[in-house]
Every structure is written in C-alpha cells, then in structure tokens.
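Quick start: what a row looks like.
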Amino acid sequence: MKSNLIPAFALAWMLLDLGVVVALGEMVRQGAVFTLIEENDLFVNTDRHYTQGIRLSFLHTDGFFPFGLTNVYSKIPEWGFRSEVGKFGYAIGQNIYTPADISATEPQVHDRPYAGWLYIGAIFQRRGWSLWDQPAQEDLELDVGVVGPGSLAKDAQIWVHEVRAFDVPRGWHHQLKNEPGLRIKYQRSVRFPLFRQDDFAGEFSPHAGFSLGNVETSFRAGGNFRMGIHLADDFGVQTIDSLGTSGSGLPTNTTLRSRWSVYIFAGAEGRTVAHNVFLDGNLFHDGPSIPKEILVGDFKMGFGLAYRRVEAGYTYVWRTPEFKGQLEEDAFGAVFIRWRF
C-alpha cells in the first residue's frame, strides 16, 4: 500500500495542471450555506480509534467579508490561480479517538491513546480559474482549540454510551493532557468535466494541499469522481478531516436553481504525515503515544440527494493503518445535511 501512495501524489499534482481547457465565463455567484457532518464508526459496526466526529460550518454569501476582512482576503496571493468570487465562513467541531478495547482501565501501550479535539475555525474560500483555465477552488482555514480533557471528548462519549446503553469506556483517565491546538489547512481543487448528456454529467476533481500545526502536519493529494443529475456547482463532498469545506450555495440568480439533484461519488486521498498529536502525543507534556505510520490512505464512496434548498447524503470511508502494529484498517460512516440560503 505504501509504495502505491507515492506515485498517487505525483499523479494528483500533474492533474492539477492538466491542460483540459473549458469555456470561460463569469463565475456564478452563490448564496450562504450551512453544513452539518456527523461521522461515527458505529455506522459500520465498530467502536475504535477515530470513533466519532461532528462539525458545523457556515459560509456567507459570495463577496461578504465581515469584521473588515476584505483587506485580509485581498492580500492572499494568487499563485497559479485567478479568483473571481470568494466566501468567508466559520466552523466548530469535535473529534474523539480511543483504543480498540474501551473496557480496559490500564494504559494500552500497543494501541492509540484516548484523545479529543475541540476547535473553532475561520474559513477563506475562493473560486476561479486554474493556470490552465479549469474551474478551481482554494480553501484556507485556521483552526484553534484544545486537545485533552478540555475538549469534552470524555463527557461526550460517556453520555452517548449511557444514553444508548452501550458499554461505558473505562480508560479516559489515560487521555492526552490539556494542550492548546493550532492547525492551518490549505487545499486547491480543480474540476474536469468527463461527460455530459443533457442534465446527466460526470466530473473528476483532483486536489492537493497541506495541514500545518501542533495538531497535525501533513501533505495530501487525491481526487474525487462524481456522477449524477443536476450536479451542483461545487467540488464534491468533503469529510470532517478534509482540507477543504463544501461551499456550494444556491446561485443568486434564481433562474439557475435546479429543483432537485441526485448523484453518487467515489474518491481517494494519500497523505504523508509528519506529525499527529493523537498518535505522537502531547507536544508540551509527557504522556501516552504510539509510533505512527508516515503514509496513510483514505478511500471513500457515497451518494447525495438535494431538493431546492436542502441536500443530504452518506459517505463511507475506509482508512489504512495509522500507527505501527495496527492489525486492522479502520472504517467509519458519515451523514451530512446542507442548507443552502
């Protein structure tokens, strides 16, 4: 698996500059959009490792930048990218991580430690044209939060398990210690039309980017394929761990609004991981840790349905081992709902 991930990075970078030229026109302005994503391994009947995540995000209408942030947005450099419209938004989320055996009270030195991550984020997003005139999107996000008991991960998991009459995890007193968390995420995506027959179309969107900070530092590349009827003018479904944020609001020109849409999608992403606090342990404190895998791959598939302002769907994600000695790959499901203003 590792040897296959390396050429995948090179292929994705090549695709970002592939000379498939599309007809240029004015980028359609879009309204605000709210997205809720809930991810849980219970959707696939497991309860281990990355066990639960929730994220809420809101992106304003194109061109609206509160708090005097227009000047900040205008100073973001355009390297190989020509922007036409931009969005600003916010995110809040929580991730929960546990070892496989949540009944053990002693530290499990051969499994990943208990950990939580609670954060808020600020998002800059812009759409435009790539170097070779394909539709493109850039996402830049700054997340700040806390790792450790302050993330409230212990309280959240125990509450859910008690409500649903599951076994209560018994090892949270061995979790990572409190530590402020900072993460900067950047991603560029490019969209290539593959085919179109009336309202039925297929698209491929390669992407590449990075995450920097004491929470995670990684470099990523991958791509998503999407096929369906009345595809939205966006770059596909994102997960909580994605570097980008789904940002498709309704076109402000009401004559362009589709009444309904249905689609399926599949994608893959490889990453080179330099630092992962949930495996490497606290940066400023001694505590539990486990040697990580440097190369990790995600594979996903799912479907989405939309009618007027509401879109919902499901994503299945399969992930290669993240730490040394991990005997089984991980998987989880994600449900999302999006309200377009």
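That is the whole record. Confidence is low (pLDDT under 50) at residues 1-25. The helical segments are 2-16, 70-74, 153-163, 277-280.
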